[in-house]
What does this fold into?
Amino acid sequence: MGEKRRVQSHSMNRYATGHVADALAQSNTVYCSMNRYATGHVADALAQSNTVYCSMNRYATGHVADALAQSNTVYCSMNRYATGHVADALAQSNTVYCSMNRYATGHVADALAQSNTVYCSMNRYATGHVADALAQSNTVYCSMNRYATGHVADALAQSNTVYCSMNRYATGHVADALAQSNTVYCSMNRYATGHVADALAQSNTVYCSMNRYATGHVADALAQSNTVYCSVNRYATGHVADALAQSNTVYCSMNRYATGHVADALAQSNTVYCSMNRYATEHVADALAQSNTVYCSMNRYATGQVCYRTCG
It folds into this structure.
């Protein structure tokens, strides 16, 4: 007659050892609420069990973590700064659902990196491996606060699609991410410079409402863009004007005293629709003269080639 199998149910406190732990090890399923720092056979029992349901406190180490690593599925709400084997368990798990606090580092981040899908609401200034995880993830959903730098930005750059509402003065890799993205939707505040502008330049389509005095790369971005919709405030100079000049179509409501390249832009444009205020001078008039079609209601004191054109 076969030996009748005994079923043991144990509510175990931490540091349980010996046969009590062996009983857990031999059981097919283990339901164990373990306190932190559990060691020895209790942990071995978890490791040998096919399924582990374990709510672990932070800083869990040793075999308890190994048990999580060997388990097929890990459901673990981890506090910040989790390290070591607990993180390794997340790394080896097929799916990771982890709400991470800011500054998470080390293996916890590696776990996110190795996971197929990452859903992570990141606070500002996230760095290091957490960002690497985003970079290696196929899809990144990240609401980034202003001044985000480093790997978080790299993650955006490597992501196939970037949806990023950027605050003013964004710099560095965040801008590079926009540059590498196929489509950029960016409402830029005034004085945007550097890589943010480069991102616009490299983007296929640029929708940019620019405030006055925009200079440098922001203007270059407009110049390199296929279509430019730009309401330029008075005194626009330099590259902003060059952008208008290189654009196929220019719709520009110009304030008085427009000079230099702004006027050249009008001159090189095929069609000019310009309501000009009084005292328009030199290049503005030349622009009208060189334009194929002129629709211009000019106030008094118009000079130069406008007079030659309009007055005969």
User: Anything to note?
Assistant: The chain has 14 helices and four strands. The mean pLDDT is 41. The radius of gyration is 32 Å.
